Amino acid sequence: MKLEQCGVSSVGLILGCALLVPTVRGSAPSSAPGVAKSQAMTPASGPIGANLNVPGLVDASSIRRRASKTNGAKTLFSWEILKKEEGDEANDKENTSDEPDEIVTDRPDFTEASSNVGRGRIQFEMGYSYSQNRDQGIPHAHSYPEMLVRIGLFADWFELRLGQNVSNSRLLGLNGAPSTSMNGAEDLYLGIGLALTEQQGFLPESRILFQTTVPTGHDSQTAGRVLPGLNYLYGWDVSDFLSIGGSTQGNAAIDADGQSYLLLAQSLTFGYTLTKKLGAYTEVFAFFPNGATAADTSPEYYFDGGFTYKFRPNLQYDIYGGVGLNRHAEDFFVGSGISFRF
Description:
Layout: E1 20-24, H1 36-40, E2 48-49, E3 77-79, H2 86-98, E4 122-133, E5 138-152, E6 158-171, E7 180-185, E8 188-197, E9 205-214, E10 227-237, E11 242-254, E12 260-273, E13 278-290, E14 300-312, E15 315-324, E16 332-341
């Protein structure tokens, strides 16, 4: 399956919807990219906001998901199951004030962050990846700059997302036929991220991405139509060392026969804080096509991992690699990237 023909991420299974209660506030004065970012899509001063009020597991700094400290409501909803005691709320405020305001990125893993960049922030994420998929007749593929621009507008819970990528690959011909080059810009990615909840205990931090690609790419790269999708993201800070995140996705996609279908995807990632600046992750993710007619469009399974290093609170470098776990998946992918914010 040629994942570069797929739309964005994801049908969100918001299992806790029945537990979400919108709260009213005043005006508000925070993936395996070779496959995930470039191929799987691969991110008010209004009256609505949220705080979650359930005893937490651990108030820990996450290498992936911690939202930046900004004024106003961070999320649209709050978990209203149990109320914190007054002393717990005071401790939470004290812990929050001591947290470093560090960059939180969608890359390098397949699972995007479960928090927005925060109001008034502009964040750039970019990189390069190399992959092989010999079963599909693609011995080499290059992907760059994997640019994602995330802009916090109106409030911490609103994020505007713009993405652009260029890919170069060669498709081998069958039975001695000449190979075909597929080089050029991919379709433009547009999206909006809405922060839904902050973590409270076993209830996750979460956000939802409404996103689409529009047919602006090169003739060899474009899908030729708008491909919308949803991506529901969720995560937990378990301890000072471990965080867990996941995504549940549904994408509009087109197979090699030109048939439209729904591409479902699921991921689970584990983040590890090794030192104050060095982080790592391991992850599994998979694609499940529904309604495709092309013979080469089948489920794909992947495992990947990598490292991140924060040179400064607003500057992060990453390196990663992954392998396909079945015949229809890519053989492997590797890459690196850099992210910074203003």
